[in-house]
């Protein structure tokens, strides 16, 4: 309900904004505009950009070879996402790589990490090259973590200086150098204004636990949406805030457009607005028609950071160029309810209410208290609809890289079957005459609410399963037949 209310609110804001615009378009700037850096400094200062030559060449080579390897092994998939109750295919193909057992949910679709090499975990990859690709991405992850910490320290240093200085100091050139080129601030340099606790906080907000990889070849797309507010052209990804992240955490994005074979930057007369041949990231202040937007070109090996609360106060989109492009978007995902450790813990909690007779081996429930029954059945729903159906609805895509998830999902299915038995036991027990009527009615009332929700969700997933067959994966075998 909360998610749907949020979607309705966003839709109303979008509708109001478009109505206010009418046939007009909002202004936006690119680096070719004289006031570009001033606008960046005043309205978008928490966006940090680094050109490709700031990254070690060895790391570029490893990561870019990794992208191509994953593409060669057919590891990128378009997702079937649900928006306002309807299923849509994403124009971008994706794969999630990260800490073992982590997941990331966006637009009602849960993605499961292909685990990158991690000490203490036995991860078998389908080929040594896929292993190398995942290893390259954790190397990139470590590098971007360090850069994000330095960038946040730099941000704090600048803010501290601004507070101390009573006069306005023009640091336009320093800003341009720091934000567009190589500028970094070390821990030692910033120790005067960042306490140890703050430094730990910075590390936690930049400790990326996964990366969502994206791939798209615009020339293979039959249709791309037009950017509606500024007239920026074709969008690969529409305006949005990234979902399900740790609050005020930094997002890091490494971009690799396959330039050279397709269309290079336009050498013709000066263009008004962005060059449509070049990929850009677009930014705007959320639901604002006063502040001009930004369109920043992305070339091979560039990366950018969205610091602190930028992802909450602003929206961003990805504007398509003409050449194929990969990106690696590193996130501190909120995994409080999205790890195997969490869901196994939930299962163990639910199964505490199930007991086995030592002689007859018959199963029974320890308690029929309303709160206990409600908790168990809600966990039952969570296991089925947030994990089992989400995993198998995507078919066997993860087997393109590794079979790592098969064992934990089999264990989850075993837990689910026990919870199905527990549901039957509740129905059996509340029907017995010795049950106190008031308690029985209270338990039934609560129980039926959860069962009604389960029935509704099963119908929705049947519809999504049909969409998987007919829209996105016509040759896919839907593997989970739990019910």
Summary keywords:
eight-stranded mixed β-sheet, alpha+beta, 483 residues, 42% helix
- The tally of strands reads 17
The helix-and-strand class reads: alpha+beta
Mean pLDDT: 86
Please give the alpha-carbon distance between the first and last residues.
Answer: 26 Å
Report strand %: 15-25%
Largest sheet: 8 strands, mixed
Q: Order of SSEs, N→C? A: HEHEHEEEEEHHHHEEEEEEHEEHEEHHH
Spans where pLDDT lies below 50 across 5 or more residues: 165-192
What's the total helix number? 12
Percent of residues in helical segments? 40-55%
Q: Radius of gyration in whole Å, from Cα?
A: 25 Å
Global geometry: globular
Task: Give a concise summary.
With 483 residues, the protein is an alpha+beta fold. The protein has helices at 2-21, 36-43, 57-72, 128-164, 172-180, 187-190, 196-204, 310-313, 340-351, 370-393, 406-430, 437-472; strands at residues 28-29, 47-50, 77-83, 86-98, 103-106, 109-112, 114-115, 210-216, 235-240, 251-257, 280-285, 293-297, 303-306, 314-319, 325-331, 354-356, 363-365. Strand 5 and strand 6 (109-112) form a beta hairpin.
């Amino acid at each position: 309900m909360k998610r749907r209310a949020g979607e309705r609110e966003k839709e109303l804001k979008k509708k109001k904004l478009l109505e206010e615009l009418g046939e007009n378009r909002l202004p936006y700037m690119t680096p070719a505009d004289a006031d570009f850096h001033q606008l960046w400094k005043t309205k978008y200062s928490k966006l940090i950009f680094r050109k490709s030559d700031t990254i070690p060449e060895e790391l570029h080579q490893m990561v870019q070879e990794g992208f191509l390897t994953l593409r060669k092994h057919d590891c990128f998939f378009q997702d079937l996402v649900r928006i306002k109750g309807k299923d849509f295919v994403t124009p971008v193909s994706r794969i999630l790589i990260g800490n073992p057992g982590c997941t990331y949910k966006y637009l009602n679709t849960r993605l499961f990490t292909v685990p990158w090499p991690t000490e203490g975990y036995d991860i078998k990859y389908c080929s040594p090259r896929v292993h190398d690709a995942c290893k390259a991405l954790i190397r990139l992850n470590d590098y971007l973590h360090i850069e994000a910490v330095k960038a946040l320290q730099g941000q704090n240093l600048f803010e501290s200086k601004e507070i101390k200085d009573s006069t306005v100091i023009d640091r336009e050139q320093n800003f341009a150098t720091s934000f567009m080129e190589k500028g970094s601030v070390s821990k030692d340099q910033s120790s005067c204004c960042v306490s140890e606790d703050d430094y730990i906080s910075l590390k936690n907000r930049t400790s990326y636990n996964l990366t969502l990889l994206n791939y798209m070849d615009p020339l293979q797309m039959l249709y791309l949406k037009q950017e509606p507010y500024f007239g920026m052209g074709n969008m690969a990804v529409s305006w949005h805030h990234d979902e399900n992240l740790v609050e005020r955490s930094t997002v890091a994005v490494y971009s690799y457009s396959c330039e050279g074979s397709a269309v290079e930057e336009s050498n013709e007369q000066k263009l008004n607005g962005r060059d449509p041949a070049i990929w850009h990231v677009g930014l705007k202040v959320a639901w604002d028609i006063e502040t001009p937007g930004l369109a920043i070109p992305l070339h091979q090996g560039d990366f950018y950071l969205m610091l602190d609360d930028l992802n909450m106060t602003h929206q961003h989109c990805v504007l398509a160029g003409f050449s194929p492009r990969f990106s690696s978007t590193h996130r501190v995902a909120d995994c409080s309810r999205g790890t195997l450790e969490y869901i196994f813990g939930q299962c163990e909690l639910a199964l505490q209410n199930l007991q086995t007779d030592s002689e007859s081996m018959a199963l029974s429930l320890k308690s029929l208290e309303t709160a206990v029954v409600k908790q168990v059945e809600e966990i039952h729903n969570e296991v089925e609809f947030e994990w089992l159906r989400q995993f198998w609805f995507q078919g066997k895509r993860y087997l393109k890289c590794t079979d790592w998830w098969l064992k934990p999902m089999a264990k989850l299915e075993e837990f689910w079957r026990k919870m199905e038995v527990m549901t039957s036991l509740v129905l059996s027990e509340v029907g017995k005459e010795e049950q106190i009527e008031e308690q029985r009615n209270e338990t039934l009332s609560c129980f039926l609410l959860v069962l009604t929700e389960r029935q509704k969700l099963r119908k929705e997933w049947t519809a999504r399963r049909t969409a998987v067959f007919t829209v996105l994966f016509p040759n896919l075998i839907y593997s989970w037949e739990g019910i």
